[in-house]
Structures are given as C-alpha cells and as structure tokens.
Amino acid sequence: MTREEVKQKLVNVLTTIQTNSGLPCPPLDGSVKPAEQLEKFNSKVWPAAIGMLSAELNYDIDDDINIFASKDGTVAYTIDEVADMACKLANDTKTTKKKEAAQ
Question: pTM for the full model?
C-alpha cells in the first residue's frame, strides 16, 4: 500500500469519526494536526481512530502506540506524519512476519 493510499484511508477514518460524533470536519490535507485541529479529537478518541485505521489497512497497530502525538503528548503530528508512521509500522510488521515465516 502506498503512502497516499494510507493517507486517504486516514482522512476517511478522521472524517468518519468527526461526522459520527456530530462534530465539524474541516478539509483535511497533509498539514492538518488532528490532535490540535479537530474538535474533541483527544486521547479518548485516538484509540478508536487507531483501531479503525488498523482495520482499514489490514494490519495491527499496537494499542500502546499513539500515532497522533509524541509519547509525552507535547508534539502533535500532521496527517502526513501519521501516514508516514503508519507506513513504517506496516513495513516493520511485514518484515517481522517474513522473518518469523523463515524460521
């Protein structure tokens, strides 16, 4: 899956969450920081968003990984940065599975 495909799935997930919550959803481009710029998109919503994205991408993103902000929560990531991180996690997962299969 390409970075652009991951980014589009992420945008779809974010749009769905905002819409289903009855909240406004501004146009989402790569520079938007969901944790800062989406109303009520906070640490209570992030796990659901990560789970939805994980299902869309068809690979697991561990529950202890917050892809929307730094570990200490002081730096919010842009959609582009989240897409990059999701791609890296997918590649790491594929590499791990290949190593396990080879053993």
Answer: 0.86
